[in-house]
Write a structure and sequence with these properties.
This protein is an alpha/beta fold. Helices cover 26% and strands 21% of the residues.
Length: 209
């Protein structure tokens, strides 16, 4: 059995999309893949778990666990309606310490394949693995990233990631994420990941995003 830990972060506004997303994950799982699913949510919100808890009744090769998040990112910069749970992916190494490597996905996703091969990608020496964005195709975005000291051609999306928890914890990277919480970054958590993890990113095939 291949165990694949994967985390999602959302609030009560996205419980139904999350159920659909996770169901698609399970519908496309290989018979020998077991998904250890972690739901990250605010400790101050009573997350509606009723539908989420029903998923393992239909798919036996998974379990769902919940990890509450404190106030580390309460009041952090928000834009375009993207709320605080977007930042929770940055805390995965601390929230899920039992795994050295964890997948993360947003819930606006329909999975169409098993993730075992992606999870087994070698990301030694890198903090994260992600898919290269198209930031370099827009002049305004290029100028924005130049101001941040980043090359737009090297930017990755943050919606689907492999988190190298072992190396992030070893190098004490999470405090560097927290230092950026109040900066008015256009793409919030995505920019924080690209700033902090610059030069330690594994680029993954577009199929993962």
């Amino acid at each position: 059995m291949n165990i694949v830990p994967i985390a999602f972060a959302f609030d009560n506004n996205l419980v139904m999309p999350a159920c659909i997303c996770i169901s698609s994950l399970m519908m496309n799982a290989n018979e020998d893949t077991f998904y250890d699913i972690f739901i990250l949510h605010s400790a101050s919100e009573d997350l509606d778990k009723s539908d989420l808890d029903r998923i393992p009744n239909y798919y036996k090769n998974c379990r769902i666990q919940y990890r509450t998040v404190g106030n580390e990112f309460d009041g952090a910069f928000e834009i375009r309606g993207i709320t605080t749970p977007a930042y929770y992916r940055l805390l995965i190494p601390e929230l899920i310490p039992e795994y050295d490597k964890v997948l993360y996905s947003d819930v606006d996703v329909i999975f169409r394949d098993d993730l075992c091969d992606i999870y087994n990608t070698d990301i030694a020496g890198c903090y994260v693995g992600g898919v290269n964005s198209v930031a370099h195709l827009d002049n305004d975005t290029i100028a924005y990233y130049n101001k941040l000291g980043l090359d737009a051609k090297g930017i990755i999306y943050s919606g689907n990631l492999i988190i190298n928890s072992k190396e992030i914890l070893s190098d004490n990277i999470i405090p560097k994420f927290k230092e950026l919480r109040d900066r008015k970054l256009r793409f919030q958590d995505m920019d924080m990941i690209n700033i902090v993890c610059k030069d330690k990113i594994k680029y993954l095939p577009p199929v993962f995003c």
